[in-house]
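Archive maintenance. Older records in this collection stored only the sequence; we are now back-filling the structure field for every entry so that each record is complete. The fields below show one back-filled record exactly as it appears after the update. Entries are processed alphabetically, and EboA domain-containing protein is next in the queue.

ARCHIVE ENTRY
Title: EboA domain-containing protein
Organism field: Paraburkholderia tagetis
Length field: 302
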Amino acid sequence: MRFDAAEALSALLGARLSHAANTFRSSATNEIRNGVSMQRLAQLLALASRHARAGVPLALTPDELRPLNAGVPGWHPAQWSLLETLRIALLLAFPDSEADAFPAAFEHCFQFADHGESCALYRALPLLPRGERFVWRAREGCRSNMRPLFEAVALDSPYPAQHFDDVAWRQLVIKAIFIDAPLWRVDGLDRRLSPELARMALDLADERRSAGRAVSPQTWLCLGPYAGERGLRALQTELAEGDEQGKRSALLAIARAGALSAGRDWLRTAFATHTPFIEQAREDGFTQRTFRFLSPQHEDRP
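Back-filled structure field:
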């Protein structure tokens, strides 16, 4: 049976919104389903802010999250707010969103959208049919200087990995490093690692060291099996000169490069110092998700 994101979100909202807010949701949903102008659709998305607050998290339980991720693999709405969810549910009520006319309506919503509305629209991308129609818009979000807009596209969503070409994908990953967005939450990163992405990450590390600046621990997440000797030399330097977080990220990168068991004296010493951390990461298979362990109070998701 086909997963119905609109129905799933509506069920979650029904249990969380007030009676008045649910009345608005039901009325607005019916109005949109019966056909509204692009202007009216945008207006209803804006009006949602009267019935839900942006600062209230959706607060999904693990049992609620699992079917959502199963329905749309790679989609993790654990960080959504109640208001974003309401707006996205209304957007998904648009009739025949597979039609050629829908992208114009979707784009119109951005023309007068405030920051919060734009974030909701970007978060909706993995739920829209024929997603290739929205690549230009998604790339615009990734170019934004506003971190929340970038993260609305890039994090917890299968959309970029599914639809971005290699150039756009690498730009997204490198920008995430620059602005310190949590790269482990970029769905599909491990699947789309490449020699070119590894080279770009190592170039970035060299540039920062030449300027006397610290290398972001997330840089090493981009190496994977493409670290090579150049990458291992850079990781050895990080183990010698980096802070605790940098050293741990370097060890994870070495493990991901398949070199953790290599007979190198410098590596044996570092491994002995961080054995509990490495064993914890090993249980996760040294995937991109293991980088969440770098923070003492790491955020998690199923």
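Update note: The two ends are 23 Å apart (CA to CA). Residues 195-210 form the longest helix (16 residues).
Entry marked complete.
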